[in-house]
Hints:
The radius of gyration is 22 Å and the shape is globular. It contains eleven helices and 15 strands. The protein folds into two domains: 5-46 and 312-412, Aspartate Aminotransferase, domain 1, CATH 3.90.1150; 50-309, 3-Layer(aba) Sandwich (Aspartate Aminotransferase, domain 2), CATH 3.40.640.10. Helices cover 34% and strands 14% of the residues. It has 418 residues and is an alpha/beta fold. Strands 2-8-7-6-5-3-4 form a seven-stranded mixed β-sheet, sandwiched between helices. Strands 11-12-15-14 form a four-stranded antiparallel β-sheet. It has a two-stranded parallel ribbon with strand order 1-13. Helix 9 runs parallel beside helix 11. The structure holds pyridoxal-5'-phosphate.
Amino acid sequence: MRINDNYLKLKAGYLFPEIGRRVSAFAAANPDAKIIKLGIGDVTEPLPAACREAMHKAIDDMADCASFHGYGPEQGYAWLREKIVANDYQPRGCAIEADEVFISDGSKCDTGNILDIFGPGTSNTIAVTDPVYPVYVDTNVMAGHTGEVKDNGEYEGLTYLPVTAANGFVAPLPDKPVDVIYLCFPNNPTGATASKEVLAQWVAYAKKHGSLILFDAAYEAFITDPDVPHSIYEIDGARECAIEFRSFSKNAGFTGVRCAFTVVPKTLMGKTSDGKDQAIWPLWNRRQSTKFNGASYIVQRGAEAVYSEAGKQQVADLIAFYMENAKLIRQTMTELGIDVYGGENAPYVWVKTPGAGGGLSSWEFFDKLLNECHIVGTPGSGFGAAGEGYFRISAFNSRANVIEAMKRMNERFTMASS
Ligand code: PLP
């Protein structure tokens, strides 16, 4: 049996194992240290009561032949898809139909699975931002859409769009046509958002070049600024060039429950190998019908409750809770003279590492924070070469841990910004 050699192209020493290795070594040498992890993007707070109640009731439905649910529609139940459209899209003027919404068990899977319907090998040119949510890159490597990894950690064949403080963490338009572009707003890891004007430029670019935008809006619920768009479909023309990924993981704390959705407009077209126009929707519909058997009934009932009156309030409270954490983190960084970004419309605070000569490296800052304050964050360089010299601090934690972590930084962190 031959294996998929592309898997061997994946970089070793992936970010989170290396963090784990350093934290374990530190913990072994300092058994009394109370380490606070502000590194991961997992939620910490309980599920909203409305979702729990709906899932309890859904389990009871399964106890009776009359209300039992076996296999559901591969695309998701219509009642959930309709609620999504009525709550997430129609009020924002987005012309999305319920049958353009595909329910799934996660955005991570969807952003990887979508590659099934793309042409083989390097038939598409692909652009990602740098730094980037690593799943976009690694899934393309696995699918054979890239060349080998280079010395700087980039893959041959991918177009990298650096995002730094200099461009306000918003990717510049590629200086050449690309076929597929990954955009993530609010962004993981930088916490940056894109204005309507910026998204309109991307939509215009995509329409001009026949490109597809893969728009990851997993963190849209954290947007507090009323002018920031929540969906790419708020932009005219996006129905012709964009797929949007959304998730219940971060708004309703479903990281362990698993429910998300992907929007594929029926007006979105791609090209066959002989240059003919082909709608994307039937391909994704076929892909999901063939390889996916639907998200669980119980979980979809839980997701539906996000849109109940009680659910909306409870989700808003959860978001407000994490955003207060983000505010506390931002405040402390500012007091310490550290340049701070993000954390205002996203649960991630992105800091410039302090220190002379451009600052510490991301990993030097990681070690310093761990050694001095017993705090774990995520080195920006792990998300891409342009993330070097930056560091991600997550607001997903208990209030007590965030307060304690920031107290330690105020008391023990020995370096102010240069
Ligand atoms: N997209 C981004 C940008 C993320 O940061 C994450 C999770 O951290 C996901 C998608 C994954 O979401 P899900 O839990 O729905 O798979």
